């Protein structure tokens, strides 16, 4: 797999595939991926080859540095294309065509090639719009796709979701598309073009808001941690933190009322419709009950009967035995540092071909000799 991507959406997509066993060759622009120099670093940014951002989403890949403006580098690239199964790029629409390296050209060198693009607004080949060619980042995609409008407190501003879901969800969908294309080629021998747009992906992810608009004619907006059609399904402040409670069906509601010692609430508000209609009254009851208990005590009281969980910090995630039992923290080398670092493991678990990070991220141009038979200008000590 040839990976011509940088920053987050593209590298995350190819990282998923690398974890699942793909031989991913990261083809980097002169100077390398823009995020190589992004913090955090363990100790010394001058000594370490890259920061945590690059390490996390480029683990297990190979690297070669090529300049598409250089004829010799273009020829080297085309020699790799001839042997490739899949190519992924996340440039603006038209960028590859500037170098005469677009999909149509590359399929002349490799007719079976699966060519995949991740762009802010998709590619004209699959649906042309006037937004194509515009730059896009996670923030732009979340804003346009309706995510920010439905995220945040009722009386607060539109709010970005913490993780870069405009990139990450797009990347996951693109990975699915690539695997579907690989399956199609295995059955028919045909390669094809796979295109995933960030704006499109956010609309796909906010599917609830789409059907709400269609069914009710009203635009959904922010309502904090609560749910538009379920209650209780919310976060509640405890004596020492926050806990979430999801007791929206009748049985869980009855069990919650039993734990609270409030059988009267179960009797007075027995149905989902009753609870939704009176959600503010019930929220006040739950807030008062939760505020008198520490998080662990509240969760322990509900566990096994009512879905509940603490709102954890990352520090608490690192201490959670479940996380370690599921191999969700993986130790890798940090070049230029005497300390190993931990990155997120693969959430995809398989009984025969277990996905896993396959080593650290590459040094820039580290695999030139392996890929082209040429000695790399950089060394492992650079």
TrEMBL record:
The keyword Transferase applies. The keyword Transferase applies. Residues 372-382 have a biased composition (Acidic residues). It comes from the Archaea. InterPro entries: CoA-transferase_III_domain, CoA-Trfase_fam_III, CoA-Trfase_III_dom3_sf, CoA-Trfase_III_dom_1_sf, Scnl_mescCoAtase. Residues 345-382 are annotated as: Disordered. Gene3D superfamilies: Crotonobetainyl-coa:carnitine coa-transferase, domain 1, formyl-coa transferase, domain 3. Keywords: Transferase. GO terms for molecular function: CoA-transferase activity. Residues 351-371 have a biased composition (Basic and acidic residues). This is CAIB/BAIF family protein.
